[in-house]
Specification:
single chain; 458 residues; mainly beta; six-stranded mixed beta sheet; six-stranded antiparallel beta sheet; 37 strands
Length: 458
Amino acid sequence: MTKKILFAFVIAAGLASCSEDYTDWNNPQHNDAEEAVAAAYGVQFVGSGVDVNMGDENNPEKIKLVSMATSNPDVDSLRFISIKVNNQVIPYTVEGNDAYVSTYSLDSCAMVALKTRKYEKRELNVDVEATVYPKSKTAVVIKGELKQNETPIPTPEIDPKGYYILGEIENVGWTPSKGLMMTDKGNGIYTATVTTTNEENWFKFYGATGFSTDDTNWDLVNKYQYGCQVNGDAATFNMLEWKDVKTPTIAGAGTWIVTLDMINCTYTISKPILYMAGDANGWATNDYLTGNDGVHYTGYMYLNQNGFKFCTQPEWKGTNYGADFNTAADAANITMTEEAGYYKVDVNLESKSYVLTPITTIGIIGSASPNGWDSDVDMTYVPYNAENKELGYWEKKDITLTAGEIKFRANDDWDINWGGDVNALTQGGGNIAVEEGTYDIKLYPWADGYAKCEMTKK
C-alpha cells in the first residue's frame, strides 16, 4: 500500500472538547521544519489492504479504511478530523486509532467523484486529516494520503438492439409500441432529441430487446427498463439504475438532448448545443452555444477575421455550418468584418444568421469584492494558447475577497452577467458565496450550463 505523509499546521478550533487536560490545545502551532516534525512524531497512516468488490457476495459490509500509529512515546494521542475519498467527504466510525467505513459509502463516494458506474477496478485517493496531541500540549494537525481499490457491481450487457424512451415527451407518451428509438453513436453511447411541454416530464429508458407491439405487455417491457435511484429526480447528470428502478424527470418545457452512456451507466439531459471552431481557438470544438428550442443559440467567445464555423457535434461529426450557414462539406469558413475581440454570439439557424455583441470588459462585483456592489474589478482576457492548447479565459490574480458574495458581469452593466453554480454558471444566476481570502480567479464564460469559474485560494 502506498503511503505519503504530508504535514500542515493550522488553527484547529474546538479540538479540545473531550478532556479538561486538552482545553489549552485549541491552537496547533506553526512549524516550518516539516521533515523534522514528521520524524519527531513518527506518525504513520496505514490503508485497509482490502480490495473492495461490490459484486462479490463475500464483500464485507465495512472495512478499516485507515489506521494511525506513532512510534514516539511523547505523543499522548491521535485523533481523526476528516477523511475524504477522491475529495468526497465519507462518513466513518472510530475505534481507537482505526477509522471504519461502510463499503456502500465507499462505492457511493467513488460513483459521485468519478461520475461512472463502469464495472472495473479503480484506485481511489484517500485523504486523511488528523491531530497529534503530544504530551507537551502543543497540538499539531497532520495530513496523510493513501490508496484504496474498489470495484462496483457488474453492469448490464449492452442491448444489441439498442434503446428507446417512453414518457411525457411530445409524440411519445407511455405506449410501448410508440417508443422513441435512440440513435446509436457507438462505444455504448445513445442519443435522442426530445421536446417537452410540462414543468415535470417523467420518462424511462428501455432496452429494445424488450420492445413489444402489444401495448399491454408491460411485464416484458419492464424487464428491460432503466431509470434512476430517486423517484422524480430531475438531475441533468445522473447514474443509471437497473434493479430498483425509479422514474427520472426532465425539468421544464423545451427541446433537449438526452444522452445514454451504457459503458459508464450514466445519462445526461442537456440543451441543444452548437460548437464554434475557428482560427481563434485552434479549430477545436471547445466553445459552446446553447439554446432552448434547437433554433436559437447563444454563447460567449473570442473571434477573429481568420475564419470559423459552427457545428452540432465535436470533431465535425454532426452538421457543420459554414459561410451563409451552408452545410456542404466544402462550405467556406464564416468570416467576420468586425474587429477581433470577445463577443456574445447569437445564432439563428432558421434565418441562417448570427449577431455579435462586443464584450469589452468582464469584471468581478459583489459584497465580497474590494469595490462592493458599486463597481467592477476588471479581469484580463488570456487568449487561446496554440502551443499548449490552453483554452482562452478571463483572469484576475491576487484579488482579496472578504466573506460574502460575488458575480461576474460584462461591460460594467447587468445586461450580461454570470452567477449560480461555479461549475455550471448561467446568465442571471444567483450570487456566488465566497470565503475570505486572496484568490486567483479564472472565468470561462462560454454558454449557460457550461460556463465555469476556477477560484484558487492562496
